[in-house]
Every structure is written in structure tokens, then in C-alpha cells.
Amino acid sequence: MGCVQSFRELCDRPKNTNVRISLPAVCIVWQTAMIILFGIFIRYDDDSDPHWIDDRKKTNKSDMENEFYFRYPSFQDVHVMIFVGFGFLMTFLKRYSFGAVGFNFLIAAFGLQWALLMQGWFGSLGPDGKIKIGVESLINADFCVASCLIAYGAVLGKVSAVQLMVMTLFGITLFAVEEHIIIHIIHAKDAGGSMVIHTFGAYYGLSISWMLYRPNLNQSSRLQCSVYHSDVFAMIGTLFLWMFWPSFNSAITDHGDGQHRAAINTYLALASTVLTTVAMSSLFQKHGKLDMVHIQNSTLAGGVAVGTAAEFMLMPYGSLIVGFCCGIISTLGYIYLTPFIEKYLKIQDTCGIHNLHAMPGVIGGIVGAITAAAATESVYGVEGLKETFDFVGDMSPTKQGGYQAAALCVAICFGVGGGILVGCVLRLPIWGDPADDSCFDDEHYWELPQDEESTQPVLQYNNHMRNKDVIETNFNMQQI
Amino acid sequence: MGCVQSFRELCDRPKNTNVRISLPAVCIVWQTAMIILFGIFIRYDDDSDPHWIDDRKKTNKSDMENEFYFRYPSFQDVHVMIFVGFGFLMTFLKRYSFGAVGFNFLIAAFGLQWALLMQGWFGSLGPDGKIKIGVESLINADFCVASCLIAYGAVLGKVSAVQLMVMTLFGITLFAVEEHIIIHIIHAKDAGGSMVIHTFGAYYGLSISWMLYRPNLNQSSRLQCSVYHSDVFAMIGTLFLWMFWPSFNSAITDHGDGQHRAAINTYLALASTVLTTVAMSSLFQKHGKLDMVHIQNSTLAGGVAVGTAAEFMLMPYGSLIVGFCCGIISTLGYIYLTPFIEKYLKIQDTCGIHNLHAMPGVIGGIVGAITAAAATESVYGVEGLKETFDFVGDMSPTKQGGYQAAALCVAICFGVGGGILVGCVLRLPIWGDPADDSCFDDEHYWELPQDEESTQPVLQYNNHMRNKDVIETNFNMQQI
Amino acid sequence: MGCVQSFRELCDRPKNTNVRISLPAVCIVWQTAMIILFGIFIRYDDDSDPHWIDDRKKTNKSDMENEFYFRYPSFQDVHVMIFVGFGFLMTFLKRYSFGAVGFNFLIAAFGLQWALLMQGWFGSLGPDGKIKIGVESLINADFCVASCLIAYGAVLGKVSAVQLMVMTLFGITLFAVEEHIIIHIIHAKDAGGSMVIHTFGAYYGLSISWMLYRPNLNQSSRLQCSVYHSDVFAMIGTLFLWMFWPSFNSAITDHGDGQHRAAINTYLALASTVLTTVAMSSLFQKHGKLDMVHIQNSTLAGGVAVGTAAEFMLMPYGSLIVGFCCGIISTLGYIYLTPFIEKYLKIQDTCGIHNLHAMPGVIGGIVGAITAAAATESVYGVEGLKETFDFVGDMSPTKQGGYQAAALCVAICFGVGGGILVGCVLRLPIWGDPADDSCFDDEHYWELPQDEESTQPVLQYNNHMRNKDVIETNFNMQQI
Q1: What are the pLDDT digits (tens) for A435-450?
Q2: CB-CB: which of A282, A289, A457 is closest to B453?
Q3: Which of A95, A108, A150, A153 shows the shortest CA–CA distance to A444?
Q4: Residue in B with minimal Cα distance to C463
Q5: Which of A147, A286, B245, C311 has the fewest CB atoms inside 10 Å of its own CB, making it the most exposed?
Q6: Of A446, A454, A477, which has the smallest distance from its Cβ to C229's Cβ?
């Protein structure tokens, strides 16, 4: 900790938010690198290559058997979640909507390219040294990006676009390694990514936020809140995440019953979460009023928590139970845990990703382990059991349960460890991050329109003051 | 009516909007009940069960034959209509956007669970006493919920979340019975639910609103209007409803040409409605200006009105005619009928559901009856006629037309009767509904952000006044 | 030019924005005409006709082989782009959001009906004189409408709804002829419409804007800018266009690998564009701040530019290169070219469609020609080459490349020529367009809600002034 402390002092220099050189440089250099690497490594897979017609005629298959038709509708739903869902969910801050939706856009667009490469190198590198991509690769790239967008939630408003690009580069890299270990080495199943995406992403972001702790963040507390319309914008994000979550959890599961079941389970878990979130939000506020923060976030916890088990025989009532618990835990997290974590653990978590992704993600991993361990041939059928878990050799449900639990640990370790390392890098005083009193303010990174009335409370405040002075002056004069 | 009158007096006690006990209690108890009932009754259907693979191998079917791939894209579109469409359509009020989108979210999430049970008990209870659910059940549950969200439109801003939960519980129950009678007993067809969903839902809501009539609602008239940005938010709802309506009307129709035709008919009817709505809106306003209320609502009337006949041979020009008439009728309804109904029938219809759902729903029922009665083998083909209408025994198109008309009556009766009964229950002074001068105000049910400038006109008004005082003071002094 | 000049003088009469007669008349008459023409010409195609079941049983096909299942998810994505994408992209102006989203809605709803007829007459008129429509017709109608919505971008805020209707009527007509020449006569390929839709639409709009040049438009410059929330609304449009562009470019390509490849190429090109847009936006603004105009628009240029070549073997790295270049060119266009074009060429381009559609569209046409000319059997396979390019007779890739280039010229000629002609018509002083100081203001065509605070800067400005007077008065008095 002494080392960390001295490092912190080293970094305490006046802030300069001008990224006119660094941001374009990073974007151009990295995009150029992407083009070169794509040129060397990335090719179309069999289902998106013009030779597919030969294969189709040979095997007398229907056009419909192209993977495109199995996955594309789900892919588009996931795509909406990544860009509109995550982007708009973070627009709740009164003066950081541009940064929320704009930087989300930037890092997702970069991240998905890097993810195609990283996931390809680890997962689908052919004997010819080429990575073959198709619609499933695009979904996996979007998934990979999701973990970095989750991490963005923890540091929203406190970092520069350049830092976010660095965070995404390392985040995607770590994700690909972690995913490879969990899916291909441990052979755990994680359809909706409770562990791989949510647990990893949340701890990655929280660790970075811990490394970037700002003791004087209260200097910008006037901006760390919402206005009426920014809360409505955030609901757009919430709803698109909520509605399309069944597609997220079913997008890469087995064709047929696998996708079908994952969608049903997620649909039910999310419905259940909404009711317990409302209940807790009302119960723990004075006068029973609802808090938009809970409605925007905790209602999604159920989707996170059924991610791993969505394709298993969780049963409809099981999904409801998972959603029930997560709505309660997540909302209580916002009320009690977030202030505690900020005060005592020095983790400033802007969007409360600990409540929305970390805790439900861990719960999801545990639920997945239990559900896998409890699998039986009578419930799944002989063929169904093999198909669902991809059992090879002497694998058994009990073993699978253990592997699932091991996978959860891997996700947490990668998140915390990776986050601390990347946090060190991000503390370097070269990235153009804002000063403590300039956080949560679009002004430093965006050309803002001139609209004094609706969104510049400070100016308006001065204006009020001026009126007050006038009144006082009058009173003084009247006394004369 | 004397009884109703005395009951009304009984209910006139000071209002208390604190729902800190009742709302959490209702949510937790009902969600717990859902878990128990789901545990007893609900199971996966054949297409979402792991045993599906055995069936598939036996019959040498493609994975693509799973019902999931026929219905899932439509399901997701319907899902967006329910949560974003209905939710955002109602955000037009200047200070009730949280309640619109938030309570819509809550009652939809509850309603779909209850709908799965109710529709299962009436429709698909197996010999083992279990309800098997799949993607079509999810669509039907969303449909069922739609009727309650329509009803919400009539009482928007005037009821508490607890009342809405009660209204939804009974609404779903009534819906399931009504639907069972119409679809399974009368054997009427109603793909897009003009009768089952829209007519029922609208009259249910209007009857409740009649029972909850507030003579002094003008006390909150300052809040019963929109602001510029709230109207733009509402357009999000309008457009997602408008765009996805072809999916709504085709979601549960026959595979193949049935779904195809329903989508085309709805697409055309909606396009036609937009033009006549604009024409009427411009023609009946001074200076030919358009009214956002009409554009937000009446443009959707065509989709409601082709609901029943969408899968029939309505013909493309027939769809255009239906849309043409509904755009005119619905817009004129907003201009002339809504004020009339409020003044003389004592029905306060916040969103004008009478113009968007009731009238077009009834028209849709009639169009359906006529189109069914006019069906011939030369138009449909021998097989096509059987397939489209599911004819068994000695059924003929003429008979079918009569049954369709009977179904419309059933929908209206259930709506009006059920609404009056439920309205009685909701008049009990225990539900935490707001006082007359507190309607259309999120403040009583939501923790609101502090944004004086943009959304608290009253404060601003005082501020103006203060300036005026200052000026007057100055004048006075100058006179001295 | 002398003729144009005198015509201009003829048109300089006082403006009257009252469209109470003309707008309803146009809507009702044209919609009635649509009904009649649909009655005469439009019928369901084989896949949406009840006789389809006979065909299916005869050929032992699966229900899944219905064209509906190949195209419907893409259709819905395109539909969202047309209404929410284009509509919300244009809401960025502080006081023209109603007009942006509302008039977009109106002309799209009219345009798609007229497009079904026009495209049917040119493309699919059967031997019985009937046009058969199915889901692919709906997609093509939406595509056709897109070109008119692009043109709307150039004249946004400066024309009346009646002018837009006229512009759409002629635009759709010209489009259908141009498309027929390019696709059916020249046999060029243009899956995503870089030439057919974007190049034509953009030059059509720019030419009209040139004909409607307003020398004194700076009188309404106070309204030709955004406010904070209107920029966030515009991001909704941007993101839905960006996310669904892969569906746009793949919607009508060949089943199987064709759709698959088009989606992948578009996905990659768009991702690449985002990074170079951000780089340029930051590099050319002082302090390296990002400009929302670029993020909202230039990020989409890559999707336009891969439109033609999306279904070819552009290769993943090729898509990235196209996106890379277009992000740079489009952003620089906004910074340097738009002011130049306005000042020297007298073209006032409200949304900068020259940078988003015209230039990228032309690039797309060129990329398509090169990619087609470079096609080889070794890359596509023998069957694949035929299938991808629909080669008949002695066609070769080199010839195809030449035809593609010819097609690009046709699109530009139709755009410029058609735009000038239609611009002449729109200069007639009978359409209710606004005066120069009334542009970009919803007030003249919409009933506006009373929300002084948040969106009426002029009033607020007076208010400020009043305060200032008060202060000055006080000062005067204090001097006394």
C-alpha cells in the first residue's frame, strides 16, 4: 500500500482535459492496426462465403439452414442492448448524457473489432492461421464489449475518452483469456455470461475505480445527479436492456430447445425482479416513494442472474425465484451497500454496477453451478443431457457443478487482478482525465450547445442571486 | 344510481398517497403467489424441453422447425410495443413521465405472469394438470397485458400503483375468461385482438374511469398538458407501436402465408391512417396547425382496426380503406367526442383510449365479421379456407361472420361489466390514490430530482412574480 | 440563369404558412387515389396468398421456406430505421423536433404506398396486369422512401408539409425510374443502395435546396442550433440507424451467404467509421472537444459506403478500410465543405446530407465497381460468382464493373436533374412555406405546448432583459 500511496502522490498534478492530440492519435493508430490485423487474420466463415452454395447443393440443405437465420434476430437484439441499452442507461446524469452515450458508442465500436481478433486467436484459429467469422462471432464480440461497458459504468464521468480506450483494449484482452479458460479449458457453460461477462466486467470496473479513487469527488456532487428528462432518457436504456435480455441469454445457446428455454427463463426472471425491486424501493424510502435509480437498474438484476443457468432446466418457478431474490438484493445494495463501499472501501461506483452486475453475476454463477450439479437424465433425457452440457468422456453433472464454481472464481480473479493492473496504468497523468471539480461534466470533452435555461443550473443560480440582490437593494432603499 | 351516489360519498375522505406499506405488501405477496403457482402448474412445452432432440431425430426434422424460429422475432417486437410503445406513448404529460413509463413497467411485469397462469388454465391445461409454456404463450401473455395497459391509459395520472396492480389482477382474469369464450367457445378468429384486446381493454378502462369520476379534476389542469420534450418522448412510443404493429397482428397467426398476409395488411392500414389523421388534424385546428395529440394517437387507429381481419383476405386496398376511415374517426373523436364524453358521460379519459382503442376496436370487429362472412373458396382455395378459419364440421363463412359479431358483443360486455365491478373495488378509500389537485403529478409517488428550471413551472411562475413585484416596487419608489 | 432569376423574383411574395386547406386536400386526395390504384393493381403474392398451402403440400416444403421468414426480421429493422432512425436523427434542432419526426412520419407513410405502385409497375407487373406484393416489396418500398427522407434532410426546417408531399411524390417516381434503369436495364447490383438510394436521394435533396436558396436565412439562425436534450434525442436516431444498417444492406440480398456476408461487412465498416469520426472531430476542434454533429452523422458514413459492395467479397479488412476513409471524409465535409457549399454554391444543407449520403454514396458506387471488376472464380467459386452477380450470357466481372460505374452516373444525373425540376415546382408561391425568419420553427405548423422555461429562449431573453432594466433602474435610483 505504501507503494500505491507514493504512486498516488506522483500522479497528483494539475489536470489538463485537452485530448486533441492523444484521442485522435489513439483512434487512428488503433484503427490502422485493426485493418492490418484483419487483413492478415480475418476471413468469412463457411456460411458467409460464396462457396456455401456448393456445400448447400451437395448436402441438399435448405437456405434456411444457414447459421444466419438461427442467430441474426438475436444478434440484432444484442446489438441494440450494447449501443442503446448500455448507452442510454448511463444518460441519467444531468450533464453527462453526451459522454454516456457518445463514449459508450466509441469504445463499443473499437472493442468489437479487437474482440473479433482476440476471441478468434483463442477460439477459432484455423489450421491455415486464419480466423473465420460469422454471425456468431459478431454476437460474441458484442458480448465481449458488454463487459467493458459494464466497467465503464463504475468510472462514468471520471475518466477521459483516452482512458476508456485503454481500459477497453486491456479489458477485451483479459476477457478473451478469461473466457478461453472458462469455456475451453474448464469447460464450464455460461450462455448469458453471468460469470464471464457480468462478474468479470463488474469487478474489473470496480477495481479500476478503486485505483482511481478521488477523495475530493464531492466537489462535483452538484452534477452527480439527474434531472427529470435525463431520468426518462435513462429509462430508454433500461427498457431496451430489459426487453432484449431474453435474446442476450439465448443468442449463442444450442439451436432449438436450448434457445427457446433460455429465452423463457430470462423472460420470467426479469418479470419477477421488477416486482421485488418496486417493493424494496418503496419500503425503504420515506413516504413509500419510488426511486428512479432502483427502477432503472435493479429491475435488470434478474437477467444477469439467470445468465448461466438460462439454458439449463432451471424450471419456470426457479427463474422466478432467482429474479425475486435479485430484485431485493440489488435494491438493498443501492440503498445500503453503495454508500458503504464508497466510504469504507474507497470505491466510487457511479452507476452502482456492484448492485446490478457484480452481486447478481456471482449469484448467477452459483445458481448455474447448483443447477448443473442437480441435472439428471430423467429431467433432461439421455440425449438432452449430453446436448445441453456438451458432455464428453466421463463427465457427470456433479463434476460439471464443480467446474462451474471454479469458473466463477476465475472470473472474479481476472476482474479484480486485471482491474488493479489496468488501474495502475490509468493513473499515469497523461490521459487527460478531469479534475475533481470537473467530473460528470460534458463541458470538458464536448462542444455544448448554448441552452442556458434548461441545463446550466449554475448560471441560473447566479441569475436567481441577482434577483435577490435587487430585492435586497430595494429593501435597503425602502428603509432609506 | 342512488347506491352508487351514497357509495361515492362514503369514499370522499382526505387522500393519503403514502403507499409505503400497501405497495410493497402487494408486490411481495403476489410475486410469492406467482412462484408457488408456477411451481405447481407451469412447465416447458415440447419445443423448449431438452427431450425435443429425441423428437427431432425421430422425425428427421430440422432445428428450424422449432416454434421458436417462427415466433421469436415477432415476440420481441410485441415485447417492445408493450414496454417501450405503451410506456412512452403515455409520457406526454409534463410531470407524469415517471409514472407513465414506470407504472406501465410494473403492471406489465406482473400481468404477464398472471396471464401465463390464467391463459394456461383456460387454454392449455394438459391431462397431467400442468400448463406447458413456449414462445407462443409468451406472446399471448404480452397480448393479455396489452389490454390492461390500454385501460391504464384512461386513468393515467389519477390512480396509485396499488390500484393499478388491483386493476391488472382483475383485468387479466377477465381477459382470460373473455378470450376463452371468444376463441375457444364461440370459435371466433381475432389474430390481432381488435375485439379481445382493444375493445375489451378500452371499455374496461373507460368503465373504471367512469366509476372513479373526479368532479374537481380541473384543480390539476395545469399539469394535464405536455411540454415540448415530453411530446417528443411520446413520439418514441407512437413510432415503436406503429412500426411493430405488423408483428403484433401477425405474431400468432398461421405459419407461412397467414403471418405474411397479416403483416402486409397491417403495414398498409397504418400507412393510410397517418395521412387521414394529418388531414383531419390540420383541417379542424385554426390556422391548419397539427396537434401532437392526434399524431401520437390517431395514427395508430388503423392497426387496431385491422387486427381481426389481418389474416383474412382483406385485400391491400381493403386495408387502406380501413385505415382511411379510422384515421378520420379517431381524430374527430379527439376533437369532439372526448370533451363530450367527459362533460356529459362523466368519463375522464386521459389518453383518449376511446378514440384510439374503443372505436377502432369495434370497427375492427365489424370489419372482421364482414370479411369472414364474405369468404369464398374461389378466393381462399379449398385448403386455404379451412386453414385460415380452422373450420370444423359444417361451419361456413356466413356462420363464422355471425360468430365474429357475437364475439364483439362479448368483448364489450366483459369490458363494461368488468370495469364497473372493478371500479367499485377501486373506489375503496384504502389504495392511496391522489387528491384532485395532486393528479398528473409524479411528486406523490416518485423521488424527484431537483431541477427547478426545466420542469417546475409553478416555481418559475413565482419567480416571474417576484420580478414583477420588484418592478412595481421600483415604480412606486420612482413615484416617490 | 436569367430565367431562373426572373422566376425567383416572381416567387418573392409575402409568405403565408396557413396550410389548412392545402394539406388536408393533398392528404385526402392522394390517399383516395392510392386506394383506387391499389384496388386496381395490387394483389398478394404467392407466399402471402392462402393458396400457398397447396403449393407447399405439392412440393413438400416446410412452412419455413416462406419468404416471410427469410426477410421479416430484416424488414422490421429497416422499418425502424425509416421511422425512428431518420425521424429522430433530425430532431437535433432546438425548436423543430415536431417537424422533424412528424413530417418524416407523414411523408414516409405516404411514400411507401406510392413506392409499392411505382416499383410494381416497373418491376413486377404480372401478365394479368396485377402487382404482386410480399415482404420483399415492403422492404423495397421502405428503401424507396429512404431516398426521399435523405432529401428531406437538406431542406429540413425550410419547407412546408405540402412541399414535402410534392417532393415525395416526384422523388418516389424518379426513384422508381432510376432504380429500374440501374437494376433491370444496366443490370448493376446495389444491395444497400449506395447509388440507387443514397447518391440519388442526396443529390435530389441538394438540388432542391439549391433551387429554394434563401439569401436571408441567417434571420432564423438563432433557431438553427441544438439544445442539450435535442442532441440526445438525435442520438436515438443515430444509434438505431447505426445498429440496424447491417439489416438495411442485407435485407434484399441473396438468401444464405449473401445476407450473411452483407451483414458482416456493414457491421465492420460502421465500427471503423466511428473511430475515425471521433479522431477527426477531436483533431479539428479547438481543445480537442468532440462535436455532436459529427458523432450523430459521420459515424454512419461507413454504412452508406459499403452499400453496393456489401454482398461482394469485399473482405473484412476491405470493409474496415472503406469505413476508415468515410469517417475522415464525412467529418472533414462537415467542418470545411458544408460552409463552402453554402457560401459559394448557394446550397443550404440543414443536416449536411452531402457529407453523410452524397460523398459516401459516390464512394460506395466506386468501391462497388472496383470490387465487382476484381471478382474472380477462385475467390467466389464458379457457382458463387454466378449467384452473387446473377450473370447471364457472356457477362464478365470486368464488364460488370463498367456497368456499376455507369449506374453511378445514372443515379447522379437523376438526382441533380430531378431535383432541379422539382425545385422549380416547389418555388411556386402556393405551398405555404415559411418566411426566412420563421424557418426551423415548429410554431407555424404545430400547436405547441406552453412551456416557456425550457424551450423558448426568446421569451427568456426578454426576461433577462427585464431583470437588467430593473438593475439599471436601481442603479439610477441609487445615484439619486
Answers
A1: 999 999 999 999 999 7
A2: A457
A3: A95
A4: B464
A5: A286
A6: A454
A84/C243 Cβ within 8 A:
yes
Cα torsion B35, B40, B42, B46: sign = positive
Confidence band of C472 (pLDDT split at 50, 70, 90): very low
Residue B71 grid cell:
415466433
The B residues from 389 to 418 touching C (CB cutoff 8 Å) are: none
| Continuous segment of H or E residues that includes residue A133 | strand A131-133
The C-alpha cell that represents B401 in the structure block: 361472420
B459 touches C at CB < 8 Å: no
Closest Cα in chain C, distance from residue A262 (Å): 20
Q: Is the pLDDT of residue B111 over 90?
A: yes
- Whether residue C121 lies within 8 A of chain B, CB to CB, comes out as no
CA B42, B61, C262: angle at the middle one, nearest 5? 100
Instruction: Flag whether residue B67 sits within 8 Å of chain C, measured between CB atoms.
Output: no
Cβ separation A454–C256 shorter than 8 A = no
Tell me if chain C has a CB within 8 Å of the CB of B291: yes
Q: Which residue has the cell 489450421?
A: A127
Q: What is the pLDDT of residues B206-237, one digit of tens each?
A: 999 999 999 999 999 899 999 999 999 999 99
Hey, is the C-beta of B185 within 8 angstroms of any chain C C-beta?
no
Retrieve residue B357's grid coordinates: 382503442
Ramachandran angles phi, psi of B451, nearest 5°: -135, 85
Cβ contact C50–B388 (<8 Å): yes
Cell of B95: 410531470
Return all residues near B386 (Cβ < 8 A) that are at least 6 apart.
none
Residue A345 grid cell: 472501501
d(CA C166, CA C418) in angstroms, rounded, equals 13
Q: Is A456 left (phi over 0), alpha (psi -120 to 50) or beta?
A: beta
Q: Which chain A residues are Cβ-neighbours of B475 within 8 angstroms?
A: none
Q: Does B428 contact A at CB distance below 8 Å?
A: no
Bridge partners, B310 (sequence order): none
Average pLDDT over every residue of A316-333 = 97
Nearest CA in chain C to A133: C264
Residue in B126, B110, B209, B138 with CA at minimum distance from that of residue B415: B209
State the helix-helix crossing angle for C67-80 and B67-80, rounded to 10 degrees: 20
CA distances (Å), origin C442, targets A294, B272, C155: 36, 24, 14
What three-state secondary structure class fits C100? Answer: helix
Contacts of A392 (CB under 8 A, 6+ apart): none
C424 touches chain A (CB under 8 A): no
| pLDDT tier, B302 (very low <50, low <70, confident <90, very high otherwise) | very high
Q: What is the ipTM of this complex?
A: 0.91
* DSSP line for B54-111: HHHHHHT--GGGSHHHHHHHHHHHHHHIIIIIHHHHGGGBTT-HHHHHHHHHHHHHHH
Work out the burial of residue A124: count CB atoms within 10 Å of its CB; fewer than 13 is exposed, 13-18 middle, 19 or more buried.
Answer: middle
Distance of CA A382 to the CA centre of its chain: 36
The reported pTM is 0.92
- Report the Cα C443 to chain-centroid distance in Å: 25
Cell of B181: 369464450
Give the dihedral sign, CA A114/A117/A122/A124.
positive
pLDDT in tens, B397-418: 999 999 999 999 999 999 999 9
pLDDT, tens digit (0-9, with 9 covering 90-100), for A180-233: 999 999 999 999 999 999 999 999 999 999 999 999 999 998 999 999 999 999
Contact A278 B27 (CB under 8 A): yes
For B180, the grid coordinates are: 376463452
* Chain B residues within an 8 Å CB radius of A455: 453-454
- The nearest alpha carbon in chain B to C451 belongs to B227
* Per-residue pLDDT at B13: 60
